[in-house]
Amino acid sequence: MSPRPTASPVAGVLVRPADIGADGPDGGGGGGAVWRLAESGRQLDADVVRVPPGSRIDSHAETDLDVLLYVIGGGGELETPAGAQPLEPGCVAWLPHGARWAVSAGAEGLLYLTAHRRSPGLGIRTAPAGAAAPAAPVVSRDEGGEAACLLSRICPGCDRPAEDIGARFCSRCGTALPVA
To answer: Model-level pTM greater than 0.85?
Structure first.
């Protein structure tokens, strides 16, 4: 029996300015994510976020992921412990994991794109081979992901998924597997 062919992702335009409110960052709508990257099999997450005029996204830190922020329209300020920095169309900001930041929109509102490595999902971790199983499943943010996602189990040597969830080395070529 020959392996089933898999569909390859196709490059292309995903959204146009008119689809997210080209008439301005407030676009007549409220705040929040107005577009999200949702294609299957992706290794990237991205959102277009609208912050209404005079509003803000309170200070927070992404503990696991670096985030790239690109200002599409409007203006405002990026607030960090080091001080406030102006945001205007075309600005690119790096928000390293663990760094605290907030965003304030100016009088025109603010429209920006964020992009980062796909977030790991919550998952059930199994006990290592030979260890006693815990009384209750251990939920971990560091391991898991979506049930259909095998990206953390792809061998860098032969590009095939590991056969065993807890494997440290590829059973096909012997290459060390990435640490999840």
So the answer is: no
Q: Give tens-digit pLDDT for 17-47.
A: 888 764 444 455 678 888 888 888 888 899 9
Q: Which two tokens stand for residue 58?
A: 């309170």
SS3 state at 166: coil
CA dist., res. 173 & res. 133, Å (int):
30
CA distance 78 to 91: 11
Alpha helices per DSSP H over the chain: 17-20
| Distance, CA of 140 to CA of 127 (rounded, Å) | 12
Distance CA 56, CA 29 (A): 15
Q: pLDDT of 65-94, one tens digit each?
A: 899 999 999 999 999 999 999 999 999 999
User: In this structure, are residues 35 and 5 in contact, taking their beta carbons and an 8 Å threshold?
Assistant: no
- Give Cα 155 distance to the centre of its chain: 22
For Cα atoms 65, 67, 71, give the angle at the middle one, nearest 5 degrees: 165
